[in-house]
Structure to design on (107 residues):
């Protein structure tokens, strides 16, 4: 039986998410990936992994913002870290916002 989570995109842009699936319980081991597209303000149920590989190791997000592509990735390195708990202790994960890189330029 596959693992299952519901993801909600509260941002104003379409997101392409790559779920990084953990092999077993060790965050240092990777099982595979699952790619999911979320339109703005949408919710989608996602199946991933299997009975033995039912945890997420991280998430990679790609979005087009203001004429450029934004790539974000966050990974779990320690079990029970705050990010590990967000990804693995709850059935619903909400992406509240994505923050583009903030740059300033001057001469």
């Amino acid at each position: 039986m596959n693992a299952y989570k519901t993801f909600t995109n509260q941002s104003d842009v379409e997101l392409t998410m790559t779920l990084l699936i953990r092999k077993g319980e060790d965050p240092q081991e990777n099982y595979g990936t699952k790619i999911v597209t979320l339109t703005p303000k949408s919710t989608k149920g996602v199946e991933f992994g299997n009975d033995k590989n039912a945890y997420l190791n991280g998430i990679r997000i790609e979005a087009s913002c203001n004429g450029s592509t934004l790539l974000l990735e966050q990974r779990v390195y320690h079990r029970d870290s705050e990010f590990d708990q967000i990804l693995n202790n709850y059935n619903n994960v909400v992406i509240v916002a994505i923050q583009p890189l903030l740059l300033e330029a001057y001469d």
About this structure: The beta strands are 3-9, 15-22, 30-38, 42-48, 56-65, 68-75, 92-95.
